[in-house]
# Entry
Amino acid sequence: MRIALLACLLAPVLAASRNRPGPVSSLPDWVEVCGRNDPDLNLCIKDKLVKNIRKAKDGISELGVPPLEPFVVREMLVEYRQGDVAGKMLIKNSRTHGLTDVIVGDVRANLDDGGLFRMEVDVGFQQLFLEGDYKAQGKIIVFPINGKGVYNISMADVTATWNVTGEYFRKAGKKFLRLTRFDMFPEVGDMEVYASNLFTGNDEFNKAALAFANEFWPVLYTELLPFANEGWDKVMRNEANKVLARIPFNLLFPDE
Ligand SMILES: *[C@@H]1O[C@H](CO)[C@@H](O)[C@H](O)[C@H]1NC(C)=O
Ligand SMILES: *[C@@H]1O[C@H](CO)[C@@H](O)[C@H](O)[C@H]1NC(C)=O
# Structure
């Protein structure tokens, strides 16, 4: 299960699993899973999820799970559209630091909700630090942006619910899980943003825009969040599903 969780929840990035090896017949010993009939399934998941995430700091090479510290996303596209205002941000080599310090609150899992997999996990992070390269064009909220540079974002007191939906499929007689949706709308206590070169070469504009963004980040963040969620959903599903395709469901949630 754990792995599922890991894979599912976190494992996005996974640029690692490129050469698509086939399904595994066992999980690494240290990965802890929950029986699918565990009467305290939610508690079990809560407990094991944290342990597995901490232990998977450097990834799980047997399963193609990439390192979680930092967690690297090669590429993610965020498209913003509000009325006739539209902009695009391509984020590259994003590195997220602090994911393995996750605090897991309540878990609400249903392995068979009318044949679907559903799981909500309440998570929190005291500190997250994101950095990477970006390329933006068009209008992002009120800013006409046309730049390419580096960014970093420091966030404190982050809380979110990982809201995961999946479906089951069979391959070579075995049952597997595939995610169909991964929603996440983090709330952030405090945020500080830095980006270089937002207005190709105009440092004064850049400074002013950052000052504005850092003063009014709650408004900007709320506005951008649904679009970021779409980008994130795609990346997470795609990458998690590469890992899940290698782990038969009876290894994730054994029938014990
Ligand atoms: C973010 O990037 C800027 C510019 O490179 C740098 O001055 C700043 O120290 C970085 N922030 C952190 C927390 O590393
Ligand atoms: C999780 O997603 C499902 C399906 O999209 C939705 O019905 C549910 O309200 C969501 N839960 C949360 C906590 O957002």
Q: What stands out?
A: The first strand starts at residue 71 and ends at 82. The CA atoms of residues 11 and 240 lie 5 Å apart.
